[in-house]
Design goal:
100 residues, 0% strand, single chain, mainly alpha, elongated
């Protein structure tokens, strides 16, 4: 992300920050930024650990639960529908066309 930033760019940003905030305010801003960053990291670690624990619980429940028995499909779904007679078909052989 910051691969092309060199020493001069960092120095320029530091000088601009020094001019904007002053020498007394910069240490306070640095501390606040450090605390914010550490809280963010802590929250991210907590979320990742909660997610991992939920995955482990789901795997345990899945392995402990008996496999559901397979229920056979109704006969009406497994039998093929009868083919329509030639007289029932429309003039064109398009099966999507609605009857007149």
């Amino acid at each position: 992300m910051f691969q092309n930033i060199g020493f001069t760019e960092i120095l320029l940003v530091a000088v601009v920050c020094l001019l904007l905030f002053g020498p007394n305010k910069l240490p306070e801003l640095g501390r606040a930024f450090g605390r914010t960053l550490s809280e963010f990291k802590k929250g991210a670690r907590d979320m990742m650990s909660e997610h991992d624990q939920a995955d482990k619980k789901a795997a345990e429940v899945k392995s402990a639960a008996p496999a559901p028995e397979e229920v056979p499909a109704p006969a009406s779904l497994t039998q093929a529908a009868p083919a329509p007679a030639n007289s029932e078909r429309a003039a064109s052989d398009n099966p999507r066309r609605l009857p007149d």
